[in-house]
Amino acid sequence: QKRLTTASIRSMKGGGRIVCLTAYTTPIARLLDPHCDLLLVGDSLGMVLYGMETTVGVTLDMMIAHGRAVMRGTSHACVIVDLPFGSYQESKEQAYRNAVRILQETGCDGVKLEGGEEMAETIAFLTSRGVPVFAHVGLMPQLVNTAGGFRSLGHSEQEAAKIRRDAAAVADAGAFAVVIEGTVEPLAREITASLAIPTVGIGASVACDGQVLVSDDMLGLFSDFKPRFVKRFADLSPLVSQAVEAYAEDVRAGRFPGAEHTFQPRK
Ligand code: KIV
Ligand code: NA
């Protein structure tokens, strides 16, 4: 059985909803793979795994290392790796060079990059030269230092018009799908209806053709803060705390390791 391709994801437009989650490591990727159409090695790993404040410090080498780990744990889902901040914005040639490194060194199916109209030329350059692109419009975390903060978008007509133009531009440029992040429902609905490619929403309502969440958020593993758009499908943090507390007690009391965990000389 073969892995889903970016072409098969694209063809899900108007069909079933696309199920996408982030994955950064082999064991988690193994658990997610049978249930997901699309797995995203997101640069959110900088915050989720490395404790960074934003995604701006994530490097290409980090993305490649985690992309390889996710590929080792998957056989069904289409795997897309984020191009990190600074690895594609300078020129379409820089974007191509680094996207090819990701494809060649991880074996993944395509790359994701943030940006609308200003990235259209780059997306066309990549897709016409064999690099499938998952676009990303609306809230763009890599712009945190210029856009200022994480807030939902599309409230003013000016903001909505920009996101509408961005979505149309990346679709025209050849992206196989587009993430819409942190965007009010009517706008996400309108964009989804107007594009020939699937929209995958995060904080962009049920109107999108698919959904993505950060796995650690929906598992209750990442932080105590739960943004409105996250639904906790599990609450794993307390389970981990309880297990570690029990381990500490057992070690301190001399209850662990027990006889069943202990090697004895052969008779
Ligand atoms: O980095 C990431 O995890 C993402 C998704 C949440 C869309 O870009
Ligand atoms: Na990202």
TrEMBL record:
Keywords tagged on the record: Cytoplasm, Magnesium, Metal-binding, Methyltransferase, Pantothenate biosynthesis, Transferase
Catalysed transformations (reactions): (6R)-5,10-methylene-5,6,7,8-tetrahydrofolate + 3-methyl-2-oxobutanoate + H2O = 2-dehydropantoate + (6S)-5,6,7,8-tetrahydrofolate
One Pfam family linked to the record: Pantoate_transf
Cofactor list: Mg(2+)
Gene Ontology molecular function: any one: methyltransferase activity
Active site: 181 (proton acceptor)
Pathway as given in its UniProt record: Cofactor biosynthesis; (R)-pantothenate biosynthesis; (R)-pantoate from 3-methyl-2-oxobutanoate: step 1/2
Residues annotated to bind 3-methyl-2-oxobutanoate: 43-44, 82, 112
SUPFAM superfamilies linked: Phosphoenolpyruvate/pyruvate domain (SSF51621)
Record InterPro entries: Pantoate_hydroxy_MeTrfase (IPR003700), Pyrv/PenolPyrv_kinase-like_dom (IPR015813), Pyrv_kinase-like_dom_sf (IPR040442)
Domain of life per record: Bacteria
A GO BP annotation: methylation
Function: Catalyzes the reversible reaction in which hydroxymethyl group from 5,10-methylenetetrahydrofolate is transferred onto alpha-ketoisovalerate to form ketopantoate.
Family: Belongs to the PanB family.
Assembly, per entry: Homodecamer; pentamer of dimers.
Record HAMAP family: PanB
Stated name of the protein: 3-methyl-2-oxobutanoate hydroxymethyltransferase
Organism, scientific name: Rhizobium metallidurans
